[in-house]
Design a protein that fits this description.
It comes from Trichomalopsis sarcophagae. This protein is α+β, with helices and mostly antiparallel strands and 358 residues long. The protein is 37% helix and 30% strand. It has three domains: 134 residues, Sandwich (Apoptosis, Tumor Necrosis Factor Receptor Associated Protein 2, Chain A), CATH 2.60.210.10; 115 residues, Potassium Channel Kv1.1, Chain A (2-Layer Sandwich); 65 residues. Strands 2, 3, 4, 5 and 8 form a five-stranded antiparallel β-sheet that branches. Strands 1-9-6-7 form a four-stranded antiparallel β-sheet. Strands 11-10-12 form a three-stranded mixed β-sheet. It is elongated and about 85 Å long. 20% of the residues are buried.
Length: 358
């Protein structure tokens, strides 16, 4: 038998793929205290919850719950009714959503009282879901001894499927782009809540993540999660001073080392990278900002350098720019105002840089 011609294997490609259902979950809980006192209110009188905001795929939805203690019309008079109403939503939204309303029973169970199966929200209807309950049933099962009634609204957005296709040639493992596959797999983990064990709450938007990855990439997350801090115990991290689109790219970098929309978000990403001690991302941001240095934006970039003392590369670039363009910068109408807005330390450094040049 003739030996196999190994070169012929180069034309053989085995294709495989993986599909993940992507979804985003949200839950809002409304606690009504001294609930028995609501019963005295007339039919048609309602109490509204605070408006709550839900983000999905950067689309903003606003909702509220309306409570009618004695119904809202003749048919429901004497019954407690609850309406879930949409306050606002994206124009012509076609996102698929599952909605469920539950009551917390006195034995600690969430009892479903109304649900909306998977579907697209009709733009003509503001009242999305309703239910009615008798007061006898409420007293027996749902009103706690302290007089509280707890209503919860759960939403699941079906964001379709995520597909990953891999072409694996049989030549040798070294010819297969393992690094790209690893990045794709990590990005798939980021976009899927499967096996996630920590939530990041950012201005009303919830991000699912994995403690081991956050801790491995950021010393700040490591300190939060391995200590006795609230974040580590509750597996919930509330993030302030960062917008959801910035956090999405920050997490993309943590998981994959890549960033999208870098030019648009560079200043905010630099601040976030500094906050979470992501040095490589910070240096990338510094380089982009340094390339954009001009007379028109030098004042804003000076403020960035003043706020973030770790930005040594950007600091040097700004000082070199000032040394070469000192007269033009000093001629700006708001030059005095710019100097007053900076710290004394930075003003001294700027002065030295210009004087050494001259």
């Amino acid at each position: 038998m003739e030996p196999m011609n190994k070169t012929s294997l180069k034309n053989f490609v085995h294709k495989s793929g993986r599909t993940t259902a992507q979804f985003n979950e949200f839950k809002y809980t409304w606690v009504l205290e001294n609930f028995l006192y609501f019963k005295a209110r007339k039919c048609g009188v309602c109490t509204t919850s605070p408006t709550f905001t839900v983000y999905n795929n950067q689309h903003k939805y606003e909702w509220l719950l309306k409570l009618f203690p004695n119904g809202n019309d003749e048919q429901t008079k004497g019954l407690m009714g609850v309406h879930l109403e949409r306050v606002s939503s994206p124009a012509e939204s076609k996102e698929t959503i599952i909605i469920k309303l539950t009551l917390l029973s006195t034995d600690g169970k969430q009892v479903t009282v109304a649900d909306k199966p998977r579907g697209i929200i009709c733009p003509e209807k503001n009242i999305v879901l309703t239910f009615n309950k008798s007061w006898d049933d409420l007293r027996q099962r749902f009103i706690f001894a302290n007089g509280e009634l707890t209503i919860s609204c759960s939403m699941v957005f079906d964001n379709g499927d995520h597909h990953v296709e891999v072409d694996s040639e049989t030549i040798s493992i070294s010819e297969f782009d393992c690094q790209e596959l690893l990045i794709d797999d990590l990005e798939a983990m980021l976009t899927s809540p499967r096996f996630s064990d920590v939530k990041l709450l950012v201005t009303g938007k919830e991000f699912q993540a994995h403690k081991v990855i956050l801790a491995a990439r950021s010393p700040v997350f490591l300190a939060m999660l391995e200590s006795n801090m609230k974040e580590g115990q509750d597996s919930v991290i509330e993030v302030g001073d960062i917008e959801p689109d910035v956090m999405a790219e920050l997490l993309r970098f943590i998981y994959t080392g890549k960033v999208e929309n870098m030019d648009e978000l560079v200043a905010d990403l630099l601040a976030a990278a500094d906050m979470y001690q992501l040095d490589h991302l910070r240096i990338m941001c510094e380089a982009i900002i340094a390339k954009k240095l001009s007379i028109d934006n030098v004042a804003e970039i000076l403020k960035i350098v003043d706020r973030h003392v770790t930005c040594k590369n950007l600091r040097e670039s700004v000082f070199k720019f000032l040394a070469c363009n000192g007269k033009d910068v000093a001629g700006l109408k708001k030059f005095d105002e710019i100097l007053r807005s900076l710290s004394t330390t930075l003003v001294i450094e700027v002065t030295k840089a210009v004087m050494l040049k001259s």
